[in-house]
Amino acid sequence: MKKRDILTPVGITLGTIMIMFGILSSGGTSGVQSFIQVSSVVIVLGGLMAALIINFNISEIKLTFRVFKESFHQSDLNLRELITLFIRLSERARREGLLALESELEEVEDPFIRKGILLAVDGIEPEVIQDIMDAEITALEERHQRGRSIIEKAGEYAPAWGMIGTLIGLVLMLNSLTDPTTLGPKMAVALLTTFYGTVMANLVFIPMAGKLENKTEQEIFIKQIIIEGVIGVQSGQNPKILEEKLSAFLSEEEKQESQEEEAFVGEAANEA
């Protein structure tokens, strides 16, 4: 399951507010009008799209909107809940056998976990399960990298196209040197394309690419835990040993929270 990641829109909004604050604090509402130039936006966005179309094929371009959408969502898979799931599966497998785990799959939504458990139920060797699931992680990493590269390239091209727009403006400005009073306004307009390109790159594209890379690393980390859990269940590992093994992936803070919850549950059970 995925839930909305509010930090991405909050970050973009905060960055926009800071830019607007800088503009308004210097020039007031009239200063805002000085930063609005349709032709500069068209040059940056149009040039950016042209560069991306040249750089990538159609199937990769189609990924752009889905990649953007991913940066506004995050997985709600909790590591402690994941460990609890594998402990439960391990206990049932030792008690009733691996075939009994098929009924547990109805409550499992994650396709990677389902696939691993089904491989275990089918009696596949642990080494083969490891290879199959590692191959899926490699494929996932490649897909994510390919989608992320579009955003990374956009972050590279946006400032460059901003500079191209500025050079166009400077050439036009130099061609009208006969009227010195127009030099200042024309220079301001010429610089706006660089402004737009730089803002797009550093407020949107580059931060989004960084977030997507972090999300990929986190997803791979979770899938590695899942592999360890599946192999532990398949090999009939003692649930306590499996718990200790999987708990090694938790941070110290998560371990502390887990111990506090266990202590609370134990106290509640004793009172009852």
UniProtKB/TrEMBL annotation:
Q: What residues does the MotA/TolQ/ExbB proton channel domain cover?
A: 106-220
Q: Which GO terms describe its cellular component?
A: plasma membrane
PROSITE patterns per record:
MOTA
Give the location in the cell. Cell membrane
Taking the first listed entry, what is the main subcellular location of this protein, grouped into a coarse class?
membrane
Any keyword Nucleotide-binding? no
Q: Which UniProt keywords apply?
A: Cell membrane, Membrane, Transmembrane, Transmembrane helix, Transport
Is the Transmembrane keyword given for this protein? yes
> According to the UniProt record, where is the region Disordered?
252-272
Span-the-membrane segments of this chain are: 7-28, 34-56, 157-175, 187-206
GO-annotated biological processes: bacterial-type flagellum-dependent swarming motility; chemotaxis
Q: How does it sit in the membrane?
A: Multi-pass membrane protein
Stored InterPro entries: Flag_MotA_CS, MotA-like, MotA_ExbB_proton_chnl
Family, according to the entry, reads as follows: Belongs to the MotA family.
How is this protein named in the record? Chemotaxis protein MotA
